[in-house]
């Protein structure tokens, strides 16, 4: 019974993170659901083999590795069906909820440009950035998930921020003209 309650707890705590990260990596809802299911199966199979306190990092690393394996297997057939995160606009939208149509249009354009800038990041910057900024993981967890050193995770997130800052400054200059 203890095994079942551990499993239920881990699934409840991590199912959305698993799915969202898979969706981000694969850009396909059905494939993300398949990866999520496979991660859940692996959690069940290994429930007594990994450190329960470090389970979140183990789960996300497993998710990341399964996504990478999937992308490698389906390299030729892979097509992007949705943008990086349909919920990203909810996370970055102005909490004032613009009332005027022109403000809503400006916010929509800004959201679109932010999504585009994140999508255009190099993979080594994009993955840690999404895990940190959108998924809420800590540097240490990201280093375990991506199998990189702690300093590499921090540097890649910093570089992603700098690249986004640069790209969005260009967008801002173009909009002010």
The span between the termini is 65 Å
Helix-strand makeup class: mainly alpha
* Uncertain ranges: 78-83, 91-96
Indicate the mean pLDDT: 81
CATH class categorisation of the largest domain: Mainly Alpha
CATH topology of the largest domain: Arc Repressor Mutant, subunit A
- Determine the oligomeric state from the structure: single chain
**Strand element count:** 0
Helix content: over 70%
Strand content: under 5%
What is the global morphology?
Answer: elongated
Instruction: Summarize the main sheet.
Output: none
What's this, in brief?
The chain has helices at residues 2-26, 29-45, 55-73, 88-92, 101-119, 123-134, 139-146, 150-176.
Topology, please?
Layout: H1 2-26, H2 29-45, H3 55-73, H4 88-92, H5 101-119, H6 123-134, H7 139-146, H8 150-176
Structure description:
The protein is mostly helical and 177 residues long. The protein has 2 domains: 2-73, RNA polymerase sigma factor, region 2, helix turn helix motif (Rna Polymerase Sigma Factor, Chain: A), CATH 1.10.1740; 88-176, Arc Repressor Mutant, subunit A, CATH 1.10.10. The chain contains 8 helices and no strands. It has helices at 2-26, 29-45, 55-73, 88-92, 101-119, 123-134, 139-146, 150-176. The radius of gyration is 18 Å and the shape is elongated.
Output the keywords.
mainly alpha, Arc Repressor Mutant, subunit A, Rna Polymerase Sigma Factor, Chain: A, 75% helix, single chain, 177 residues, 2 domains
